Amino acid sequence: MTRDVAIVAFAQSDHRRRTPETSEAEMLLPVLRDVLDQAGLDPGTPGFTCSGSSDYLAGRPFSFTMALDSVGAWPPIAESHVETDGAWALYEAWVKLLTGEADTALVYACGKSSPGDLRAVLTRQLDPYYVAPLWPDPIALAALQTQALIDAGATDERALAGIAVRNRRAATANPHAQLQGSAPAERLLEADHLLRPLRTHDAPPISDGAAAVVLAADDTARRICPRPAWIRGIDHRIEPHGLGVRDLTDSPSTRLAAEHAGAFTAPVDTAELHAPFTAQEVVLRTALRLGDDVLVNPSGGALAANPVMATGLIRLGEAAARIHRGASDRALAHATSGPCLQQNLVAVLEGERP
Amino acid sequence: MPGPTPETLTAPLVVEFPFTRSLGPVQSAFLTGLRERTVLGVRTRDGRVLVPPVEYDPVTAEEIRDLVETAATGTVTTWAWNPAPRRGQPLATPFAWVLVRLDGADTALLHALDAPGPDAVHTGLRVRIRWAVRRTGAITDIACFEPYDSPAAPRATAHSGAFADPVTGITTSARLDYTYTPGRAQTRYLTALAGRRILGERCPACHKVHVPPRGACPTCGTPTDEQTEVGPRGTVTTFCVVNIKAKGLEIDVPYVYAHIALDGADLALHGRIAGIPYDRVRMGMRVEPVWTEGARHPDHYRPTGEPDAPYDAYKELL
Fold it and tell me: What is the ipTM of this complex?
């Protein structure tokens, strides 16, 4: 049986540096209500529910089960959770819908980084034998990748500042973004280094936020959404965990995922890239063969809001929302996980042309 | 009625865990080697030497055991200047993070480089290992790298990997610090508890009263913000007898831990039962909270002396 599966609704919170007044469940509630309302579904009625989050961020064991309070889990629902970005939860839900066991799926993700020290927390995802005991934080690892790209002649600090400016200026049109607008590149380059070669503008903000999408198959999708964002292909690939084994200036896993998702069979007009650091956009543009005619990160991307565990799902949601409102016909969405673009997911979304 | 949201409560939360991990044969040889100031790599079938070495070929996934010794000198392949070292990192003064390809290796190792400043560091810089004075068989046996001008000597020599008293496991401690905030609903609940009132929240859709409240009805997913006072008396719906003394807990065993449905609540909460011999506690027993000075939560629940509640009165709350 072949089925077509589409993203038919997308919602997200406003992303903020800190949200001490709300629990994760309380942060999710309005987002879930919004996305289910868009899809015309009542809580508890999607055929499958899948979420992405990490207990380490807020330091609350089993926070993902507490978050289930927000979905209407009784009578018992078919549910699953991934301890990574919600983009991978979307992948699992896509597979579930392809099997025919469900016609609709709710996918959500939330990340509340403000209670902890995100730079310390993310060291705990590294190789526990040779790397984690040194506590190298994500900014340090991204800086090593950035220097490798500068040494290779792929970019320079001026070009990277330009990437920061472009993303954050695009975010002025995104009411959910945390950082909107930017000083010109010349001004940004006057600042001291955060961790040379990176300056603050090269790194993402620390964000609390949540996002959700609804997937639906075939006629159910057409009934819910006037212009569904059909998932034409989706794939994810991972590279070795040893940083010194990888070529940090390239992303073969992104390229391979894109090939399997069918990204190279026809040009895309839009790409939402999950590049938390400026230099990673350089790597991804090359791996994905994106030309200057492709609109990259009209949402502002991860540089404008980075609710860890939801940032990748938001890329899929933003790309789908542009198709829903007719601003894109064929879009690429990318999500990443791990240090220096270790694991990458690529999806190709299309709207039907009239 | 929805009450005003009180000031956000916060509390420090420390998550601390010592991870104890066993080592595979290659990892064991590598880390034992570091203890003995010897750097070992592993050779893949296509002839590449991986440092740090791994148990399985990253390309073919085959088990690899062909150990070689590399030099303690090498070349920086990329670097980043860390002006503000953080807890747990190899050096307490500003340093460079580096990937170093040791002479004789084909891959690079992540570590710190002790250098006077960023102007003293560049890709291609020649460096050598500075060994830690006290070595235990861990990646931190390399204290850091230091600049060291020497000709590259790219030769790896065969090594058996055998050492006296090999390291077979590592224990790495980790500490993460958080500022815990309970959210709106639990803040309302905790604030009321400080005044010895127990507040539930009623679901506007299914009308059930949940305590402690979490801001959403756990059955239908509807937001809740209508507070209603419950208890203080309640009914034991079910219980267990605890016979194992918990570490750090002052309470003598055996004692009874129970589910208690407070009057007006549609969800039972947990509490300890005291003021009655443990073997006299029963389902349906009526209890009330006992508060102690300075504590936010009831210390325990004790019998009220009322007649037991009939089973039908609480069977839906089991």
Answer: 0.95
